[in-house]
Write a structure and sequence with these properties.
The structure holds two protein chains of two kinds.
Chain A lengths: L2 H9 L1 E11 L7 E6 L20 E4 L9 H5 L5 E5 L5 E5 L9 H5 L5 E4 L1 E4 H9 L2 H7 L2 E5 L7 H13 L3 E6 L5 H5 L7 E5 L5 H8 L4 H11 L6 E8 L7 H12 L4 E8 L5 H7 L13 H12 L7 E3 L5
Parallel strand pairs in A: 2-8, 8-9, 9-10, 10-11, 11-12, 12-13
Antiparallel strand pairs in A: 1-2, 1-7, 3-6, 4-5
Helix pairs in contact in A: 4-6, 10-12
Chain B lengths: L15 H13 L4 E3 L1 H12 L5 H15 L20 E3 L2 H11 L15 H15 L4 H8 L2 H8 L3 E2 L15 H21 L8 H35 L3 H16 L8 H18 L10 H4 L1 H10 L4 H15 L8 H6 L8 E5 L11 H13 L5 E6 L6 H12 L6 E4 H10 L4 H4 L3 E3 L3 E3 L4 E2 L5 E4 H8 L25 H30 L5 H4 L3 H6 L10 E2 L3 E5 L1 H17 L5 H9 L6 H9 L8 H19 L2 E2 L2 E2 L1 E3 L6 H5 L29 H9 L14 E4 L7 H17 L3 E6 L2 H9 L8 E3 L4 E3 L5 H9 L10
Parallel strand pairs in B: 1-2, 4-5, 5-6, 9-11, 10-12, 12-15, 16-17
Antiparallel strand pairs in B: 3-10, 6-17, 7-8, 13-14, 18-19
Classes of the chains: A alpha/beta, B alpha/beta.
């Protein structure tokens, strides 16, 4: 390989939401989780809605805003304006159509009430950050987890980060919704130690209804990864969403699907949680899961135990699903 | 062993905990009072010995205290002894600093920090007997008269705090408990007699040695007599006692006190009693913080092991004795003046007990007693003793580390977790050979010490690092007073390059260090008039050299400790100036100076830039580099000075000094507003560490810890999610091992428990900087929506894991 090509791969950029260091919930040990932006699915319970679009997004935390108007003055295209609401109280309006995403408003806000979700990063910059916790990976058996968003949507970026990270002897994992062309997944497999593949609903119609896409590609990809020649560990993850996928039928079919595959290590059931609900508000989005309650520990265990009856040799674990 | 043993688990608590609860209750329900009995007896002793050498007078005064002090054995006690006449008495060290009380006669009962109730009759004793004798003769008065000019200017403006050693005694030392326990006073007296025989008082110098050794013998006589008085009191009480069980206990106390510390201890019980009685004696000799029992799991284990093997004690009985001793450690209250109390609030005795580490062959030293000592803190849960762990990553077993994590999870703030390799390195950097350095022990807060062999003040004076930036940006001007009191480092608007700015900061630091060193030398001189024969008694080399601890008789001596406070404020302020003024040019120096002058009034945008500049604790390359550079400079600067006793020694521990120091510092380029507290220890400024524990430790590791030989203190907040699952415990263990790999010296954890979060929900303005993990990111708790807050509160609940 020529040095030139290597250099250009290190300079490749991706759209990144953020890093989370010292995570205990995204694979073994202490992990640095790299959240990428851009996801093909629209899961209504998603705990990181700010990771859905590929481009950076603007968030607004109304509780912090003092209506000082700095942002209005900073906006070059008049997307922000002083106005009065229905009760004749002072307010600031935002027109997303006009906004050019320069984020001058965020920079001008003394209260940090305006957030910028997302930025670009090169492979080299990402790897440098990942390596900062090398010692912690060593003692805990942890490493890197790329999450999202959908990591395989930025397949080249993801694959290059994984390859470079492996050069430092660091364990790698990816969390994926699997709704991407298999060719994009395949690119990463040589440098991937652990794949967390989501399996949300076996009934394709329900899948389409809730997530905007059917599940055909996902099931197909899981089978292909299972048949891959690379020795990666595969965990199937099922986010337990009351009323959507916690029925006996779905859990049985999911377990049976996994049991039929030879290279799956385990099934992990994660409880729905609402820690992301604030972010919806900041993005000006409705949180569609307001009526959902998080499943109790007991219910989670009961559902996992139920699944275990149909999962053949596969263990069914429950995770805390905090992150 | 179960970690929850001390809690009110139904039917699970061992019965001895009833006694411990009663002993604890007595401590908790007693209000601290001034105790002038010692001062009165000391004064009488000095008066009777007028004309004799100072050290003889001190020894006789001490012996007088032993002969005549009130001897009380309280109900339920198994280990006895008390330095004063009251359970929670503040002891006035009249010969050191009688005048402190003189200034506070009317206020001490109600002062804000650490009040002591002063009875009217005690006030009378003070005015009639103590003050008239000591006026013009105390160490504190000598200090006030001799403070060098350069030191006084900075001292009077809260730039340095250097009075601590003048308002109390030596402290900050680890006596040779092991020697006393093993050989008894008899053995020590034999050693003294052997030395005395060698002397010929017709030879120049031998007379001084002879009267010095006499002074030691007088002190030993006092200690033996005091123990005997406790034995007699126990017998008296036994005779009056109706309950046969208690009568038996009292007779056992009597038998124990008849034997130790006069004779070598034969049992674990005798060893504990010998230790504690002597411990009260050195505190009685000089009121001070940080007399450290040190490595109790090492020097007491042979006694316990033998007793267990011989079947003369059960594990529960041994645990009960330890727990009783733990309550005793919580009784004494440090008396200090109002200002010193602000710098170390909470009557802090800092009796540091240590477990773990390696033995003198360098191998694992953890034993059963190490775990029982951890258990004593779990059982008793009082503020003393200060429990420290020496953790040797290479040698100590994982089971020990896990037990430590379990204790951390109780949220008492104990133990202070020390990286053993760094402690050893620090001692070696103090000039102590590796073989002996293996036996180091934490002292006071996080300082390093060596039992029976090492003399220095570990924390002589504190330097306010916030002021250093203020001076560099004000050409030596103190913002609060408007006076030019420091080095004139030039008009900051003329600093064209970053180098010019940073050189000004360094010049200010060098100036302050110089001022402290000048003061330290004066205090060393005054210290020669402060002999401590009772303490010196267990320093073998003091006997062999016939030279008091105060005069440099210990085997090893080093220069005093100079402590830096406001680490994060210094680094963040330098980083902000570098980033905003020099690297990016986002603001001009004149704009910054103007905003600081006005405490950021009307400069919201500029302050936002300041707050968003790189912050120490996030593993940012700029702040990491500054941390390494500036603290290497500081260590170099301090170490270039020598005292009569050796190289001066740097350390970073705030106790609570970051709060009063903050009151003296105006707005800083870090974005910190005027008169706010500074950051503590080597910890990041509150609410600025957004990248979690691994980033904090990686950042903190950029300070060259091994060179700050008086220790470095790191406080970290931790969420219960870290240890309420098996996975969490494993990860916290990994974090602690990583911390050792990184070369960080110490960490102490504050648990963000459910109560804290509930209070933060109710009073958000008081908890503005409280950071928590949300879904893959870190956020200010008070800025989260109620539902998300509730969810986070929910996860603090223990998830039913088994510990122990």
């Amino acid at each position: 390989m020529s040095g030139g090509r290597q250099k250009s791969e290190m300079a490749l950029t991706g759209s990144v939401l953020r890093f989370a260091r010292a995570s205990m919930h995204d694979g073994r040990g202490l992990r640095t989780v790299l959240f990428l932006k851009g996801c093909p699915l629209q899961c209504p319970w998603c705990s990181t809605p700010e990771s859905r679009p590929f481009e950076p997004q603007r968030g607004y935390v109304q509780d912090l805003c003092t209506l000082c108007g700095n942002c209005v003055d900073a906006c070059r295209v008049q997307a922000l304006a002083r106005a009065a609401d229905e009760k004749d109280e002072k307010t600031v309006t935002f027109d997303p159509e006009k906004c050019q995403r320069c984020f001058g408003c965020a920079a001008s806000c003394p209260q940090n009430a305006i957030k910028k979700y997302g930025h670009t990063l090169t492979v080299a910059e990402a790897v440098e950050q990942i390596c900062q916790d090398e010692i912690f990976y060593f003692h805990s058996g942890g490493g890197l987890t790329i999450s999202g968003g959908e990591p395989f949507c930025q397949a080249g970026f993801t694959a290059n980060i994984l390859r470079e990270t492996k050069k430092h002897g660091i364990h790698t994992a990816v969390e994926s919704c699997m709704h991407v062309p298999f060719s994009q997944i395949e690119m990463a497999l040589p440098w991937l130690d652990h794949l967390y593949a989501d399996l949300k609903q076996m009934d394709s119609r329900l899948h389409l209804l809730w997530l905007g896409e059917n599940n055909g590609l996902i099931l197909e990809n899981i089978k292909k990864v299972n048949a891959s020649c690379f020795p990666l560990v595969i965990t199937i993850r099922l986010p337990l969403i009351p009323g959507f996928n916690d029925s006996d039928q779905n859990l049985r079919e999911s377990a049976q699907f996994c049991a039929g595959l030879t290279n799956i290590r385990e099934i992990e059931v994660l409880p729905y949680h609402r820690l992301g609900s604030d972010t919806y508000r900041h993005l000006g989005l409705d949180y569609q899961c307001l009526d959902l309650t998080a499943p109790s520990e007991k219910y989670l265990q009961e559902r996992a135990t139920f699944m275990r009856k149909f999962s053949g040799p596969l263990p069914v674990k429950t995770g805390s699903g905090l992150i | 062993m179960s970690v929850t043993k001390g809690k009110s688990g139904p039917g699970k608590a061992p019965t001895y905990l009833d006694r411990i609860r009663r002993l604890k209750e007595r401590v908790l329900s007693t209000m601290p009072e001034m105790d002038l009995e010692n001062a009165r007896l000391l004064t009488a002793g000095f008066r009777e010995a007028e004309g004799e050498p100072l050290v003889i007078r001190k020894a006789k005064a001490f012996r007088n205290q032993c002969y005549h002090k009130t001897v009380t054995i309280w109900d339920d006690e198994l280990i006895v002894g008390c330095a004063g006449s009251k359970i929670r008495g503040g002891i006035l060290c009249a010969d050191s600093c009688w005048s402190v009380l003189d200034r506070e006669l009317e206020t001490i009962s109600n002062r804000k920090y650490d009040p002591f109730y002063l009875r009217p009759e005690d006030k009378k004793i003070f005015m009639k007997e103590i003050k008239p004798y000591w006026q013009g003769r105390s160490n504190y008065e000598e200090w006030l008269a001799q403070i060098p000019e350069i030191t006084r200017a900075l001292r009077d403006h809260g730039v340095i705090y250097i009075d601590r050693k003048a308002v109390r005694g030596w402290g900050e030392t680890t006596a040779g408990y092991e020697w006393l326990i093993k050989e008894g006073l008899t053995g020590i007296v034999n050693t003294i007699e052997k030395e005395r025989i060698k002397l010929d008082i017709t030879k120049p110098g031998d007379y001084e040695k002879d009267y010095y050794l006499q002074a030691l013998l007088i002190a030993a006589e006092g200690i033996a007599a005091l123990a005997e008085r406790y034995a007699l009191e126990a017998e008296r009480l036994a005779e009056l006692e109706a309950d046969p069980r208690r009568r038996g206990e009292l007779l056992q106390v009597a038998a124990t006190c008849h034997h130790v510390p006069q004779q070598p201890a034969r049992t674990f019980r005798e060893a504990l009693q010998s230790l504690y009685l002597y411990h009260t004696c050195i505190f009685m000799e000089q009121n001070a913080a940080s007399y450290n029992p040190g490595r109790m799991d090492q020097y007491l284990w042979p006694f316990l092991k033998a007793d267990l093997n011989a079947g003369i004690i059960t594990n529960d009985e041994a645990q009960e004795l330890l727990d009783c001793l733990w309550v005793k450690f919580s009784e004494p209250c440090l008396f200090q003046d109002a200002l010193t109390a602000e710098f170390a609030a909470g009557y802090p005795m800092f009796q540091n007990v240590c477990v773990g580490g390696v033995d003198d062959t360098g191998k694992d030293a953890v034993n059963e007693l190490s775990c029982m000592i951890l258990q004593a803190t779990i059982d008793v849960q009082l503020y003393q003793p200060s429990l420290s762990v020496r953790y040797s990553m290479a040698k100590n077993p994982n089971s020990f580390l896990r037990k430590v994590v379990e204790l951390i999870s109780l949220g008492t703030g104990f133990p202070a977790f020390h990286n053993d390799d760094l402690g050893i390195l620090m001692l070696m950097n103090k000039g102590i050979p590796l073989k002996e350095a293996y036996n180091w022990n934490p002292c006071g807060c996080v300082e390093t010490n060596l039992e029976g062999r090492l003399r220095h003040y570990t924390a002589l004076a504190d330097i306010n690092l916030g002021s250093m930036v203020e001076f560099a940006l004000g050409n030596g001007k103190n913002r609060k007073s408007g006076l030019y009191i420091a080095a004139r480092t030039g008009e900051p608007n003329n600093f064209v390059t970053y180098e010019q700015f940073i050189n000004a900061v360094k010049t200010q630091i060098a100036y302050a260090i110089r001022a402290v060193v000048a003061g330290s030398h004066v205090l060393d001189e005054i210290g020669f008039n402060r002999p401590v024969p009772a303490l010196s008694l267990t320093f073998r080399d003091c006997i062999e050299k016939s030279l008091d601890y105060a005069w440099g008789g210990a085997k090893y001596n080093t220069g005093n400790g100079i402590i830096l406070i406001g680490v994060a404020d210094l680094i963040n302020s330098i980083a902000a100036v570098r980033h905003l003024v020099y690297d990016t040019g986002l603001i001009r120096m004149s704009e910054l100076l103007n905003a600081l002058e006005k405490n950021f009034e009307g400069s919201d945008k500029l302050r936002k830039l300041c707050l968003e500049a790189p912050k120490y604790g996030n593993n940012d390359p700029l702040t990491d580099q500054i941390a390494g550079d500036i603290f290497t400079f500081i260590a170099d600067e301090i170490e270039q000075y020598r005292s009569k006793f050796g190289k001066m020694t740097p350390g970073i521990l705030p106790v609570s000094g970051n709060t009063p120091f903050g009151l003296e510092v105006g707005a800083l380029p870090s974005g910190r507003k005027a008169w706010q507290p500074l950051a503590d220890g080597v910890s990041p400024s509150g609410g600025t560490d957004f990248n979690g524990p691994t980033a904090v430790l990686s950042a903190v590791a950029h300070i060259p810890h091994g060179r700050f030989v008086q220790g470095t203190l790191l406080n970290m907040k931790i969420e219960p999610a870290m240890f309420n699952t098996e996975n969490g415990i494993a990860q916290l263990m990994a974090i602690l091992k990583s911390m050792c790999s990184l070369g960080v010296y110490h960490v102490q954890f504050n648990v963000i428990d459910q109560d804290t979060l509930l209070r933060a929900q109710q009073e958000p303005e008081k908890y503005k900087g409280l950071l928590v993990r949300v879904a893959g990111y870190t956020a200010y708790f008070t800025e989260l929506g109620k539902d998300v807050q509730d969810e986070i509160i929910g996860r603090t609940v223990m998830q039913g894991i088994s510990v122990g």
